[in-house]
């Protein structure tokens, strides 16, 4: 059994923006990448990536979870430090409902260059 929190990196984006969304999460070296998940913008993709990371945390049975991403806007709204943008309410409600199953949860912002999920999206993007 691993000690310490389950750290999950998440990232979402579009190519072009707006355009077809793609998301990724990385947990303990395992990459979860989903492409072509619908049309939207990068902000929506970041929310979907966060929800994807929460789903993975729950699948792994995470009781002590740290979600790590590079979207300041999404992290500030999810932590209650900023008001949601128009259109964010359903994502925020889904996030709050999902994380209720996780006893200990932290959400942390990092630089884009440090985001393992963003790196996974970049390296697996079809050329």
UniProtKB/TrEMBL annotation:
UniProt keyword Ion transport, yes or no: no
EC number(s) given by UniProt: 3.1.26.4
Superkingdom of the source species: Bacteria
Record-level Gene Ontology MF annotations: RNA-DNA hybrid ribonuclease activity
Gene3D superfamilies listed in its UniProt record: Ribonuclease H-like superfamily/Ribonuclease H (3.30.420.10)
Protein keywords: Hydrolase
Enzyme class, spelled out: hydrolase
Signal peptide: none
Stretches assigned to the RNase H type-1 domain: 40-124
Name of protein: Ribonuclease HI
Organism: Sphingomonas vulcanisoli
Taxonomic classification: Bacteria, Pseudomonadati, Pseudomonadota, Alphaproteobacteria, Sphingomonadales
């Amino acid at each position: 059994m691993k000690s310490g929190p389950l750290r999950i990196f998440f990232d979402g984006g579009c190519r072009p923006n707006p355009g077809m969304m793609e998301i990724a999460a990385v947990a303990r070296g395992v990459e979860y990448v989903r492409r072509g998940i619908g049309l939207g913008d990068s902000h929506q993709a970041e929310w979907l990536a966060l929800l994807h990371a929460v789903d993975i945390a729950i699948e792994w049975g995470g009781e002590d979870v740290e979600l790590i991403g590079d979207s300041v806007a999404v992290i500030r709204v999810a932590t209650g430090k900023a008001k949601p943008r128009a259109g964010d309410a359903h994502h925020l409600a889904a996030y709050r409902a999902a994380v209720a199953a996780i006893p200990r949860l932290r959400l942390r912002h990092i630089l884009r260059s440090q985001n393992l999920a963003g790196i996974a999206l970049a390296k697996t993007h079809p050329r």
